[in-house]
């Protein structure tokens, strides 16, 4: 028997998916599953069956035998089960063991050949498949994976934001890109979006804050790794928590309503939103004026045979704008991104001026 997990997402927020990073033994999996079920807060059991590891030689999962343990855990706890699939034979085994949700991992989503192989293996089934973001922040690649599944007739599809690989670990193991996740949700509004704080954080201490942020950004579910004894876990031990720690984490989350229907709240919101609309108008007008002024500078430069790009002037603008932005409560990260895009637009406008005048242009 399979649970319609997509329906579950329509009834509850957040849907909680939890279980060990890897199924290591029958005893480890069943005891973790039972404690998770006893919390009454977990909806779906997860476990890694085949583990795609960065380097060979580390624990690569038990393989198909662990699917038998998962099936047993499902019978004993009543929890639907989920597992990662990365190739044709995984899909075949998962279907055979009544896995309720399969997910495609970040390392697989990056490879259209692998995704297509999985989609072909699923053709003609009513499987539920969640797709993790690819390792690199490429929304087209993530979208392409969804399209391949849809092309194979799969209709029960969900998304998982697990963060993005980076050259240097700063705070997170995998940098969250919330805007990208929000954009993906906009593209596929009917698909549940799950956040995977465990892979974003790589460290259990950050899980609470990231889970809360995910809920505040309207994510529909959380996938959090748990282990009966994380200290002896064979993979990713720093990011796993015991079922009782998970229970506490979930109790401490504030689940805010997404509804804006209450009349007095609606009124307050409308007033503030109309103020935002007016400010946006002003900003656009000012930006338009700025670009027109830049075009005038373009004409002057063209007449004098001067290059568009003026690094010294631009450095001066960055320096003073970062200070002024700070005074107005704007972060350095925002100011840098904003200035970069303004500069590019300004250069584009001057390029057009120079193009029309028939002189050299910069890209
Ligand atoms: C507008 C100019 O051209 C470029 C665009 C700038 C801007 O938009 O502020 C600044 C320096 C130049 O790279 C300029 O030279 O002042």
TrEMBL record:
GO terms for molecular function: chorismate mutase activity; transferase activity. Pfam families: CM_2, DAHP_synth_1. Coiled coil: none annotated. Residues 263-354 form the Chorismate mutase domain. It is an enzyme of class 5 (isomerase). The keyword Lyase does not apply. Its EC number is 5.4.99.5. This is chorismate mutase. It comes from Mangrovivirga cuniculi.
């Amino acid at each position: 028997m399979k649970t319609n997990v997509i329906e579950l997402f329509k009834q509850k927020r957040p849907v909680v998916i939890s279980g060990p990073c890897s199924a290591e033994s029958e005893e480890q999996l069943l005891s973790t599953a039972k404690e998770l079920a006893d919390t009454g807060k977990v909806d779906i059991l997860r476990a890694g069956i085949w583990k795609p590891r960065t380097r060979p030689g580390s624990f690569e999962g038990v393989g198909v035998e662990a699917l038998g343990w998962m099936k047993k855990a499902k019978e004993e706890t009543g929890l639907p089960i989920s597992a990662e699939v990365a190739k044709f034979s995984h899909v075949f085994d998962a279907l055979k063991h009544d896995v309720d949700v399969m997910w495609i991992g970040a390392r697989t989503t990056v490879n259209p050949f692998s995704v297509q192989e999985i989609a072909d293996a699923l053709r003609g089934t009513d499987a539920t498949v969640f797709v993790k973001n690819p390792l690199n922040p490429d929304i087209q690649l993530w979208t392409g994976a969804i399209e391949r599944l849809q092309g194979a007739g799969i209709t029960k599809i969900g998304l998982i934001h697990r963060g993005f690989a980076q050259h240097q670990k700063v705070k997170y193991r995998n940098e969250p890109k919330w805007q990208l996740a929000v954009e993906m949700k906009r593209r596929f509004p009917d698909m549940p979006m799950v956040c995977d704080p465990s892979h974003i954080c790589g460290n259990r201490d950050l899980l609470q804050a990231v889970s809360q942020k995910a809920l505040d950004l309207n994510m529909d579910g959380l996938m959090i790794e748990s282990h009966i004894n994380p200290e002896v876990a064979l993979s990713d031990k720093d990011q796993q928590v015991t079922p009782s720690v998970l229970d506490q984490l979930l109790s401490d989350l504030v689940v805010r309503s997404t509804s804006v229907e209450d009349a007095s709240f609606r009124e307050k919101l409308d007033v503030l939103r109309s103020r935002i609309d007016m400010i946006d108008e002003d900003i656009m007008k000012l930006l338009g004026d700025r670009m027109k002024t830049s075009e005038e500078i373009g004409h002057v430069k063209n007449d004098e045979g001067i290059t568009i790009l003026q690094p010294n002037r631009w450095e001066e603008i960055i320096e003073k704008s970062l200070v002024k932005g700070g005074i107005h409560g704007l972060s350095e990260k925002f100011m840098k991104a904003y200035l970069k895009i303004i500069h590019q637009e300004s250069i584009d406008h001057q390029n057009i001026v120079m193009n029309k005048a028939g002189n050299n242009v910069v890209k």
